[in-house]
Structures are given as C-alpha cells and as structure tokens.
Amino acid sequence: MSGKNSDNKKEAQPQTGMHRRGPRGMGNIEKAKDAKGTTLRLLNYFKEYRVKIAFVVIATVASSLVGLAGPYLQGVAIDKYIVLGDLDGLLRISLMLAGVYVFTTLVAGVNSVIMAGISQGSLMKMRKELFEHMQLLSLSFFDKNQTGDLMSRLTNDIDAIGALLTQNVTQLVQNLLTLVGIIVLMFSLNVWLALASLIVFPLMIIFTAVVGKRTRVYYRDLQKQTGGLNGVIQETLGGQKVVIAFEQQDAVNKKFDKMNQAVKETGVLALTYAMMVPPIMGILSNANIAIVAGLGGWMTLQGLATIGTIATFIQYSRQFANPLRHFANMYNSIQSALAGAERIFEIIDTPPELTDCEDAVSPQQIQGEVVFEEVDFEYVPDVPVLKNISLHAKPGETIALVGPTGAGKTTIVNVLTRFYDIQKGKITIDGLDIRNVKKDYLRSKLGIV
Question: Which CATH homologous superfamily contains domain 35-348?
C-alpha cells in the first residue's frame, strides 16, 4: 500500500466525543418559500379522493346555505309571531329552526369522519414517499443531516399537515360560503345596515394578512430549530455511554441549552403573532356589532327598520365575524402545515448522489482482484481523507489495514462498496471500474463484519 492518508477528517460539528464517518451537521438546504407552489403540490396527494371530497364540498355547501336561514327565521319569528302573539306560527318556525340546527350538526359530523379518512390516507402516502426516497439517498446525505431532524420531518411535520386537513379544510369551505352568503342576505334585507356592517371588514382583512405572513416565517424557523433540537437529543442519548466515558456531560449540556434557547425564542415570536389574532378580531367583531346595534336602533325609531330586522343583522354580524375569526385562527395551522410541507418536499426533491450509469453491468463471475489506483477522496471539499492511495489485493489474498483512529481504514471500505464516490483515481475489481458495476450487484458480492 502506497501513498498518503489523512487523519484530519473534518466534521461539521463536534459530536460529543463520538467518532463519525464523515461530516455531520444540519446541512445547508435552501428553504423553499413558495406557499402557492407548496399548496398546489399538496393537492396532488388528494387526487384519488376526488369523489369523497366532492361529496364533502356539496354537503358543506348545503349545510352552509341552510345555516344562513337561522338568523333570518329568528327575525321573522320576532316580527310576525312574537310581536303579534301568534303561538301556532311561533311553534312552526321554532320547529324549522330546530331542523336547521340538527341538519347542520349532522353534516358537520359526517364530514369530520370522511375528512379524517382522507387526511390519514393522504398522510400515509406522503409518509411512504418520504421514507422510501430516504432509502435511495447516499450516506453523504445522512452525514450532512441529523437523524433527529429527519425524524422530525417524518413525524412532526407530517402531523402539522394532518392537523390542517382534519380540522380546517371543511371549515374553510363553510366559512367562505357563509361570508359570501351573509353579505348577499344583508344587502337584500337593508342596504344601509349592510354597509354599516362592512365598516370594519377592511381592517380585519389587512390585519389578518399582515400578521399571517409574519406567523408563517416564524413557524417555519421554529420547525427547523425543533428538528435540530431533536437531532441533538437523539445523538446524545444514542451515544450516552461514550458521553459518560469521556466526561462530555458539560459539553452536551451546553449544546442542548443553546439549541433549546433558540427554540424557545423562536417559539415565543411565533406564538406571540399567532395569539395576537383572536383578541384583535374579537375587538373588531364587537365594534361591528355595536355599529349595527346603534344604527339599527336609530333606524327603528325612525320607522326605517323593524326589531326583527335588527335582531337578524346582529346575528349575521356575529356570524360574519366568525369566518374571519376562523380564518385568523387557521393561519396558525396553515403556516405550520406549509412550513412542514416545504421541509418534506426538500427531502423528496433531493436527488440520489450515487446512481448506476446507463451501461452499468453485473458480471457473471468475480475472481476478487481489487486494485486502488492513485485514489483521492474527501468527505467535505478541500479536506482530503485519502490521498494518492494505491493497493493491489490478489484473489484469495488476505490484507490487514492497520492505523490509528481516523487514518482512513473504514473510508477505504466505504469507497470500495461505493457508499461514497472517489474524487480522483480508480478502483477496479477484476479490471472493471466499480463505477461501471451496478451498486446492488457490487454490494451483494462484498461482506462486511
């Protein structure tokens, strides 16, 4: 064996005294920030559930339209039956109101069951695609990404998407229909009261949009840092014997505290923006009701509106605020889910570094002559591990590689099995460059103890 090897193999981050084969760390993957593109890509996972989704949408539309009749029927009950003392008419309209609320409740229950099945089926497909793609990635990918962070993408990020699908999709459709329906009905009942009800609407929209944008940024950072924290925990607990043996408890505690503090600070920012929305929306909603009640009272005294109309508008004003409040609350789930989806698609879009060439072969027989010809290899750029390595192992010959830890013994085995590709030189088996041999076949002929 001739040439030089290096024991200065660089690691991305210290690993609590545990020796690693190659660089470790978070990896510098560019974060996707295309919310529209991520959303469209997520929708592809629901194609096989189109019929069920269509049923849920139709049922939600019917439920929303029927639900809009509730406040209108209350106003009719006041003006035509309560004021006039018509008990029979009041009973009839009360039964109609009960039917409205029973129908909307049943539809909500059925939709929840269907959406749970759709959500879990889609998540299973996404989880399977992510896990299977990880099996195709080379060891260098896992060197650059902490195990805990990858596990976080398979669990926490998937769960964030599931929470959005299970709880909020039907609400989104229902709230949109309710919002449009309320506006149409209010203008059909009384134009001036309808205009008064919309005074605070622009403020609600602007506030929701501005705060929602910032929330998404912080949720994405929070999930990234949570993945890093999970990586530190997994690596430390997995190598706890080494930590204790080399008295590295203080070092791992400092590393954990640093990551934990970063998660805390980002979490405070994310939750501060998220929790800011409900109370502000509540204040604007109450202001809207006060405007409607004040103007409606004056119009009633002037004979321009009835008590039933005012009661209907107050109910619609409350319902009008509910969709906006739900939209604000949904931002938390939406931002978390989109951030999680971006992190998942980053892994799925990572191409395998080691692939078979088009003319790769599977030799019928292997004699076992192994030759390294002036091989150079480095785990990270400009940090050589093997330099100008040449060796020749004849069939049946036994060779022992001896050297201190980090000298490159395991690295020689890694490049022989094509866990990594060399940067310079050539490795042949029976005169055939291993890069021209199918990986699966090559590894099936090698034994590692």
Answer: ABC transporter type 1, transmembrane domain (1.20.1560.10)
How much is the average pLDDT of 301-306?
83
Q: What percent of the chain has pLDDT over 90?
A: 10
Q: What is the mean pLDDT of residues 262-282?
A: 83
- Report, as an integer, the average pLDDT of 307-324: 79
Q: What is the pLDDT of residues 175-187, one digit of tens each?
A: 888 888 888 888 8
Mean pLDDT of 108-119: 88
* Residue 354 predicted with pLDDT over 70: no
pLDDT of residue 14: 34
SS3 of the chain: CEEEECCCCCCCCCCCCCCCCCCCCCCCCCCCCCHHHHHHHHHHHHHHHHHHHHHHHHHHHHHHHHHHHHHHHHHHHHHHHHCCCCHHHHHHHHHHHHHHHHHHHHHHHHHHHHHHHHHHHHHHHHHHHHHHHHCCCCHHHHHHCCHHHHHHHHHHHHHHHHHHHHHHHHHHHHHHHHHHHHHHHHHHHCHHHHHHHCCCHHHHHHHHHHHHHHHHHHHHHHHHHHHHHHHHHHHHHHCHHHHHHCCCHHHHHHHHHHHHHHHHHHHHHHHHHHHHHHHHHHHHHHHHHHHHHHHHHHHHHCCCCCHHHHHHHHHHHHHHHHHHHHHHHHHHHHHHHHHHHHHHHHHHCCCCCCCCCCCCECCCCCCCCEEEEEEEEEEECCEEEEEEEEEEECCCCCCCCCCCCCCCHHHHHHHHCCCCCCCEEEEEECCEEHHHECHHHHHHCCCCC
pTM here is 0.60
Specify the CATH superfamily of domain 2-12+361-444. Answer: P-loop containing nucleotide triphosphate hydrolases (3.40.50.300)
What is the per-residue pLDDT across 236-252, written as a single tens digit (0 to 9) for each?
888 888 888 888 889 88
- For the chain, the structural domain boundaries read 2-12+361-444, 35-348
pLDDT of res. 102: 93
